[in-house]
Amino acid sequence: MRNRKNSSYSLVLYLRWPLMLSILLIFMNLILLAVDRRAAAAMGVFTIIFVAVSFFLYLYSKRGIYTGLIDFTQSFGSAESRILNNLNDPIAICDTKGNLIWTNYSFETLFGGASLTASIQNIFPDITGQILGELTDDALIHSSYSDNRYLIEMHPEVISGDADETAGDDADNNEISGLFGSSDTQIILISVSDETELVQYKKDYVDKRPCEGLIYLDNYDEALASVEDTRRSLLTALVDRRISNYILSLNGIVKKLEKDKYLFFMNDIDAREMIRDRFSILEGIKGINIGNELSMTLSIGVGRGGNTYNECYDFAAAAIDLALGRGGDQAIVKDPENVTYFGGKSMAPEKNARVKARVKALAFRELLSANDKLLVMGHKNGDADSLGASIGIWKIAKSYGKTAHIVLNSPSKSLEPLYKLFANNPDYPDDLFISGDKALNIIDDTTIVTVVDVNRPSFTEEPRLLQSAATVVVIDHHRKGTEFIENAALTYVEPYASSACEMTTEIIQYIDDTTTVTPLEADALYSGMVIDTQNFINQTGVRTFESAAYLRRKGASTVRIRKLFRDNYNDFKAKAGAIDSSEIYKSVFAIGVLDPTGVASPTVTGAQAANSLLSVNGIKAAVVLTPYNDQIFVSARSIDEVNVQVMMERIGGGGHISVAGAQLKHMTIEEAKAEIFEVIDNMIEEGEIS
Question: Who's near 248: CB < 8 A, 6+ residues apart?
Answer without folding.
Answer: 254
